[in-house]
């Protein structure tokens, strides 16, 4: 396997069902990535070492998922110059609003790009868009992906217009 360009970290293995969507998207683009557990609260030294060593290992973007207090993305961003994308994980008590606010409300100087609650796929897409600035092959795949999305919507719009909404809904 090639050296990973994207590091995907999460505070707990319970976050993996959400975070796998980022890895699956990156895999579909052929972007080498690594996935691991790094808890800001339970493995602070591991988090520190991961964030400090990522750039030297060839990582160019970090995707960090966390729920609840959700310190992992911000703490990671405080320790590296790499872009960090935070994925708020939906929680049982506050439906992920706590996670979203914890990740989005970073102090000046420690930005974390934040996607929607459980938005790991968008984190993977955003990571590819960031990498596209440096990697032409990834840029081409992002452009193709965007064109395919546009084509899909235009096809659906035409079908809806041709059939009318009742027939369109009845076919599903």
From TrEMBL:
Residues 4-153 form the PurE domain. Gene3D superfamilies: 3.40.50.1970. One of its GO terms (molecular function) is lyase activity. It catalyses: 5-carboxyamino-1-(5-phospho-D-ribosyl)imidazole + H(+) = 5-amino-1-(5-phospho-D-ribosyl)imidazole-4-carboxylate. Substrate binds at residues 12, 15, 42. Pathway: Purine metabolism; IMP biosynthesis via de novo pathway; 5-amino-1-(5-phospho-D-ribosyl)imidazole-4-carboxylate from 5-amino-1-(5-phospho-D-ribosyl)imidazole (N5-CAIR route): step 2/2. Signal peptide: none annotated. Catalyzes the conversion of N5-carboxyaminoimidazole ribonucleotide (N5-CAIR) to 4-carboxy-5-aminoimidazole ribonucleotide (CAIR). Belongs to the AIR carboxylase family. Class I subfamily. This is N5-carboxyaminoimidazole ribonucleotide mutase. The gene is purE1.
């Amino acid at each position: 396997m090639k050296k990973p360009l994207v590091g995907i970290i999460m505070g707990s293995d319970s976050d993996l069902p959400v975070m796998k969507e980022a890895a699956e998207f990156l895999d579909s683009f052929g972007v080498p990535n690594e996935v691991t557990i790094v808890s800001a609260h339970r493995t602070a030294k591991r988090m520190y070492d991961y964030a400090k060593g990522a750039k030297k290992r060839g990582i160019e973007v970090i995707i960090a998922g966390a729920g609840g207090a959700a310190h992992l993305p911000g703490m990671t961003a405080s320790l590296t110059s790499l872009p960090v994308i935070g994925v708020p994980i939906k929680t049982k008590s506050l439906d992920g609003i706590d996670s979203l606010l914890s990740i989005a409300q970073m102090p000046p100087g420690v930005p974390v790009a934040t996607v929607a609650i459980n938005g790991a796929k968008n984190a993977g897409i955003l990571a590819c868009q960031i990498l596209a600035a440096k990697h032409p092959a990834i840029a081409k795949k992002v452009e193709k992906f965007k064109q395919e999305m546009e084509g899909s919507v235009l096809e659906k719009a035409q079908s809806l217009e041709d059939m009318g909404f009742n027939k369109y809904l009845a076919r599903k």
